[in-house]
Specification:
Helices cover about 75% and strands about 0% of the residues.
Length: about 80
Amino acid sequence: MKKKYTGLKIIIIILAVFQSLAYLGGSKSHAPEVSGAEAAGYYVGYNLTGIFAVILFLIYLSKRKQAKKDDTQAMIDSIGKE
């Protein structure tokens, strides 16, 4: 089970690193002075890799929980079949 979602973990880490580099490399002084939908679009665009990382992390947690539950159920079902 540990090796099953290694690729997803690597993608999440890469996206988190890219988002961290965007915050460290960029400055907030370049933010445009707009309001409304343009400001929301700028915020979402600037944080897009972070948003993807959070979504993928939530998917990873749910898949890992389901796999652990399936493994436990298979172990319980195997009791007495020997």
